[in-house]
Design a protein that fits this description.
Length: 81
């Protein structure tokens, strides 16, 4: 496949003559379904992560300073979620 001597190269005509294995649309569609499900779960987890981080950033300073108590924090967290 490598026809160049000094600098490795790949001739376009050599690539065009290669045969490729094709599994068919059924397997590609099944993979796409699984991959889409995983991508949606990743997105949902990411959204939840940012919501939890925002809740933490809102409540932690107030809890540590004594501005609010745990019962108040639970109420505020319920409102945020």
């Amino acid at each position: 496949m490598n026809t160049d001597a000094a600098v490795p190269g790949l001739n376009r005509n050599n690539v065009y003559r290669l045969e490729l294995a094709w599994c068919g649309n059924g397997i590609v569609d099944a993979f796409d379904l699984v991959a889409t499900t995983h991508r949606e779960k990743i997105k949902a987890n990411s959204d939840e992560f940012y919501t939890l981080a925002a809740t933490r950033d809102l409540l932690l300073p107030k809890l540590m300073s004594g501005e609010i108590r745990l019962k108040d924090a639970e109420k505020i967290a319920g409102e945020v979620a």
